[in-house]
């Protein structure tokens, strides 16, 4: 009788929330979708640039609306396991073929880029 109770307890424990099989979850990879536009690339944009120059810097836009041909939308979405999705939207406005303004937010640069004058002292010390 005692063995039967212990066996029933073990079998029924598989249905509980303390199931050790639920402690291990499979790996879920990050899923990036859209245009990865960094702040460095947006900083290079200047009013008056042509559409081809903007496309060279930022890439081909994910969304081009037939009803709003004067704007390009760069959308980015990152889905990570166990975290809320991260959404970013950057909109570039044009007047004809010239860029007028940029609205929205871009992603931070993957690594900081030093200005050219920051490395000048290091180059001078190597020359001496």
TrEMBL record:
Keyword Iron: no
A Gene Ontology biological process term: Gram-negative-bacterium-type cell outer membrane assembly
GO cellular component assignments: Bam protein complex
Primary location: membrane
Pfam families: BamE
All residue ranges annotated as the Outer membrane protein assembly factor BamE domain in the record: 34-103
Oligomer status and interactors: Part of the Bam complex.
Similarity comment text for this entry: Belongs to the BamE family.
Full protein name: Outer membrane protein assembly factor BamE
Organism of provenance: Pseudogulbenkiania subflava DSM 22618
